[in-house]
Amino acid sequence: MRQLPAWMQRAALAAGLCVFAALPAAAQNIEAGRAKAQACAACHGADGNSVAPTFPSLAGQTWRYIYIQLRDYKEGRRNNPVMSPMAAPLSREDMIDIANFFAAQPLKPTNFRADETRVRLGKAKADETLCTMCHLGGFLGQNEIPRVAGQQYDYIVQQLRDFKARTRTNDAGSMTSVAQTLSDADIENLGHYLASLR
Length: 198
What we know:
Blueprint: H1 6-26, H2 30-36, H3 41-44, H4 63-75, H5 83-87, H6 92-103, H7 116-128, H8 132-135, H9 153-165, H10 174-179, H11 184-196
C-alpha cells in the first residue's frame, strides 16, 4: 500500500485535531450548568431568554462567548455592578458549565416591535460596516464573537453606545473601532435590524 504524501498526512492530522478541539464544549455537563445558572434566572430568565430588555438573552449564544464574558467580569476586564460580583466566585468549570447550559437553550423571539424603515437602514449600515465578517451570516456568532440576531433591542443599543464611549473595552478593539463610525441614529437602526432577526 502506498503511503500518503507528507502534506496530506499533516492535513489529516490538523483536521483530526480540530475535531478533537471541539469536543470539550460538547462534552460539558448541561445539567450541572442548569443548576449553577439558577442565580442567573432573575435577569436572564431560567432558560436564558431575558425577562427584561436591558438584560441580554443568553439562550443560543455561543458557549465560548458566554465563558469569556464571565471570565472578563471575574478578572475585571469588563465591569458591571451586578455581573462583576456574580462572576467573582465562579470557577473555570462553573463558567464553562453555565456557558454550555445557556448555549444549548433555544432563543425565543422578544416582544420588541421593530420599525421596518429602521430595519432597512440598520441592514444597510451592517452591510456597509461588514458586520458579518465577524458575526457571520445571520448574525449567529462564532467562538468569541457573540450571536446578536434576535438579541434585546435595548441591550444592543446600550452595548454599541458603550463601545463608542469606550466604557466597554473587552473586545480587542474591534467593536470599539467600528462603533466610532456610528451615529446615534445608526446605533438605533442597527438595534432595530438585529433585534428583528430570527
